[in-house]
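Posting here for the record, re: KGT.
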Amino acid sequence: MAKSIVAVCQMAVSDDKLENFKQGKLLVCESKRRGAVMTFLPEACDFVASNSPELAEFISSDTSVSSWYCELARSEKIWISLGGIHRKCAGDDQSKCRVSHVIINDVGEITSVYDKCHLFSVDIPGKITLKETDRCVPGSAITDVTETPIGRVASLICYDVRFPQMSCELRRRGAEILTYPSAFTVPTGHAHWHALLRSRAIETQCYVVAAALTGKHGTRSFYGHSLVVDPWGTVLADAGDEVGVSTASVDLGYMQTIRENMPIDLHTRWSLYSDSKTRNEK
Ligand SMILES: O=C(O)CNC(=O)[C@H](CS)NC(=O)CCC(=O)C(=O)O
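Prediction output follows.
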């Protein structure tokens, strides 16, 4: 069964979209040089800004960051996951944007778009206060898995990692690789990042690929530690704090063996749980 190299690009970005793209381009080219068939960029790979909705763009626009990456994917012949770009959407409150995970194939076509569903609005006194809901519109649907040469890829973003219902649903829809492109905060990253990502890998028996932002922007610092985790929970790559490319091998045969040896999908007692549609949602 298929075995392929994937790359995670750890980035440090500013509010200059062209400069950020130049960094992303170097990392994508380095991914290709190292044999990756698909490379993953973090959430906010387009930019980080205090007033980000002003810089967001419509995805179809020829001048948009996504169109630059489509051209790059085509010329480098590599699949690219743009883990989270800020985009405007017709019909939305135009003072806000969506955070969208865009997958581009190796001929430069967009094959899937997922809008971040769980927005990070938290207040932990002395640690972190962020209100993503002030500037973003949440997505309202799970995007089906995307068939790629590395396997069936599930699109998620950052804070989604704290909601295992979502990865569980994507596993039921055939996911083999869960992706959590992120811009994690330092305090929550220290406490939770590795544990959350390894848990999602172990309980779904999927590979987990999480490209992350590192570095500082204004008062914000990002945790870094882009990871690739295998379906047994082993960390195959950890990028630490630096900007750069890390690679790992995705082996669907190994994943199949793990699923056969411990068939947790067959052992799941669905009858124990209430229908999710009847649960309270805020
Ligand atoms: O604002 C931007 O442009 C980039 N996006 C982010 O930084 C996002 C939204 S504020 N960060 C997270 O979701 C962190 C989640 C997190 O750290 C946790 O779950 O602990």
